[in-house]
Amino acid sequence: FGDPGLGAARELYDMPVVGLAEAGMLTACMLGGKFSVVTFAQALGPWYQECVDWHRLGDRCASIRMLDGTFRSISDVQSEKVDLLVELAMRAIDEDGADAIVLAGAPLSGLAAHVRDRIPVPVVDCAQAAVRQAATLAALRPRGALRGSFARPAAKASIGLSERLAARISHHDCPRQSST
After folding, report:
1. Which positions ≥6 away from 111 have C-beta within 8 Å?
2. What is the CA radius of gyration of the chain?
3. Which domain holds residue 20?
4. pTM for the full model?
């Protein structure tokens, strides 16, 4: 969910690159005035706050709610904690004014479909949002940025990377067309 490396990937590649967190939060923004992030571990809270801030969505984020305690297995966190996650979502709605809920963290992928009838506001599955938004962006066929935030940086030599990635970074692949 935290979209690590998203900005760098956008600089490096000419195709749209979609982050799970960004897709989930932007989808939630289309479904309500404010959203809350609901996740399964306290340790994720600061990282998710940094992600909200990096995407400049602080004014739209009502809260970040995290479960207390531990869980048996990351692969079973949905089934083990579903009732507590729904309870946490309800608190975000009632206490924080959330109009939409973003279920955050890859282990929660697919859970929205199972709990949406228990939560009275839209619930966003970040993985589904990212896949759908990636398909939409691919269909729109935007060009890669030649200027601005995600313009490809100057060529650099590197060591220890795969041959294809090193070629991309050093511009020994098919470079973007320059405007100069």
Report:
1. 78, 82, 85, 103, 125
2. 19
3. 6-140
4. 0.84
